[in-house]
Amino acid sequence: MATNGGIDDNEWQKLPCDQKVQHKAWKARMTGYEECVTLFRTQNSDQSPEFMKYVSLMKKFVIDSNENAREKALDAVFAFVEEANVAGKTVNEVSSGIITKCLNARSKMKERAFDIILMYIEIEKQVEITEELVKGLENKQPKIVQACLELLRKGLSEFGSKVLPIKPFLKQVIPLLDDRDKTVRDESKLLIVEIYKWIGKQTLMPMIQNVKPIQMQELQTEFDKLDLNGIDKPRQTRFLRSQQELKQKMEETNIPSSVIIEDPNLDMQEDLDPFEMLEPVNILERLSKEFYEKIESKQWKDRKEVLDDLLTLLTQNPKLTSDTDYSELVKILKKIIAKDSNIPVVLVAAKCLTALAKGLRKSFKNYAISVIEVCLDRCREKKTNVIEVLRETCDATYPGTNLEQFSEVAVTLLTHKTPIVRQCTQQFLTKCFAMATQNTLPKKILKIYLSGLIKNTTEADASVRDSAFESLGMLWKCLGEKHVFPNLTDLDDLKLIKIKEYAEKSVLLNLRGEPRSNAPLIVSPTPAVTKKPTSIEIPIIKSVPPKPAPVIKKKPAVVVAVASPAVAAVPAAKPSIPANESIEEKKKESRPPKSSAPVRIAPSRSKQTLVNTSLSNPKINSTKIRPNTAPISKSATISSTQSRNQRLVPVLLPPSTKIRPKPPLSTNRRSSIDLTASNLQRQSTSTGGSTSSLSSTNTQSSIPCTRLQTPTSSTTISILRSVSNDIISSPTPSNSNPKSRIPVRTMPMTIIKKSSA
């Protein structure tokens, strides 16, 4: 039977393996690929001469025109890359062929292509693989672009950023977040999230700041879901050939790959410095032409405007070119910090110096000492926000210098006339001492600092003393008692105890300002616990006893007994003042002259009566109160509403006595009282001023009774009072004689003063 190539099967089967894979018949090639897998796996050494025969044929394997044969060819390529020592020579040709021919094929072929690419990374060809994958991101087929993104994500996830560098492909990935194909957009977002795990938000966010707000919101949502200190913490799970010893050590100790390893000898994390991934920029070329003119302007707004522009430029470009001369710019900023009277301008200038120091790092060494001196001297401002910004500038500037170079300036600042400057200087030195070692702080330099610090322990200002003790405690912790104690023999025991207390609380730092990993104890949580009460004010809630319930005093019932024409008064409860009577009317009421004469009242026909003056008491049973037979007179109503401190009843005076005219009253009720008073006066005149002619019956018949037009309620109770809250008369229908048919009429209170005769 003839094949497609026109040759019998028996003929190509007799060919050697290296010729079968080059045969025109796809079946012959497929058979050759299968034989190659067995051949590569059975070699005794990775440097076998058999591998050299197939180095030039690997590219043809991955671009075979027949898909069935190509699928078998990928198996042979994977075995070759895994077993052959010379496989690295084929990385460029094989990876480019895989990207163009295999990544858009069926799933099984795509999986084998992924295995080959990752195997090339394992044999330490990650640089070449990254270059080819970046080229694949420019392919016109979305499937290929999506597959390249997925390969980058898998390589970064398994090998880590220490093996697969992020910098070469990050800039090419960011524009794909806005690709028209959804699969490309989704895969690029997943890759950005994986990058975020390895380099963090601080480095990544400035590089993706031009992303659309919707995409940024989606990314931020994914970032917030991550627990970088727990299950989502990035870790290397696959190792290079050169890391196999580390892999075996992990397997021998039975440490699963999902466990975070704290041993520095087994550290799989990349010692990645995000700063190294950034491109350096010369910001002096991007400054406006009017910068140096406006920075000297007398208007503080002009100075602040150009400084804000400079700060924005430094923020957008965190890494600066180290071969540029920034001396003029630094000089202007130092001048503003030292002499400018406008605080907002000073703050922006300090932030610009902070960004310059961080952007240049050790290249800022030429300006570091002078900048620190100016910033610490300006701490005399005593404003918290200013001191905090200046302290950040000093911390960012210190990596460009060392304690030996700073010693001369430090001695001057430790004897500054302003206590707050000495305090800030000692606090800055405390942090510098935390990053020091015996090599960076020799005995000669140590003595220079100790003299000033010991002197400040006797200062009158408590903050200066405490900061000096803190600095000495850090030196004790950093260098040890052996090197520090011999210089502290002049201090008393109390001061030494305080220094030891600060030494116990001190935390040593590395050059990045982080707690040292080789510290005997993890003390990073301790400062947070000790500083928390000083930064957070916990309100003390005083236990306030509950207010007692208001005691409602019930008005006592009053028993009025009528035994004789002159009845003594019985104390009663205070009547409530009607709400409809205004304060102005009360002020207009006349105040009659006080009298100490005995009071005589008209006898009442009613019997002993029990009166409850609390009309609002719900316990009153209205059904037991009989209705009044006659309405209450207006005069009685007025009498019940008068002030308890007045006697508002007309008096009878001798004919020779002049009566003071009363002011006109505004209500009808008061006019009725005037009529009654005038009638009483005329009656008294006709009887010659004698009081004996007035009896209860005569008084009752002589004084007209004014009836109300509307009947009163059955629950209405009228009480007439005197100054001492005595009840004068209380005609209650419920206690009147039931056999009497004479209507009971309410009479006004009558008080008669004895004549002087």
Automatic annotation (TrEMBL):
Subcellular location: Cytoplasm, Cytoskeleton
Chief localisation class: cytoplasm
Pfam families per UniProt: XMAP215_CLASP_TOG
Domain of life: Eukaryota
Bias-annotated ranges (Basic and acidic residues): 583-592
GO terms for cellular component: cytoskeleton
Residue span of region Disordered: 579-714
UniProt biased composition (Polar residues): 605-646, 665-682, 703-714
Sequence ranges assigned to domain TOG in this UniProt record: 4-232, 276-512
Signal sequence residues: none
Keywords: Cytoplasm, Cytoskeleton
GO molecular function, one term: microtubule plus end polymerase
Extent of Low complexity compositional bias: 683-702
One of the GO BP terms on file: spindle organization
PANTHER family given in the database record: MICROTUBULE ASSOCIATED PROTEIN XMAP215
Name used for this protein in its record: TOG domain-containing protein
Organism listed in the record: Adineta steineri
Phylogenetic placement of the source organism: Eukaryota, Metazoa, Spiralia, Gnathifera, Rotifera
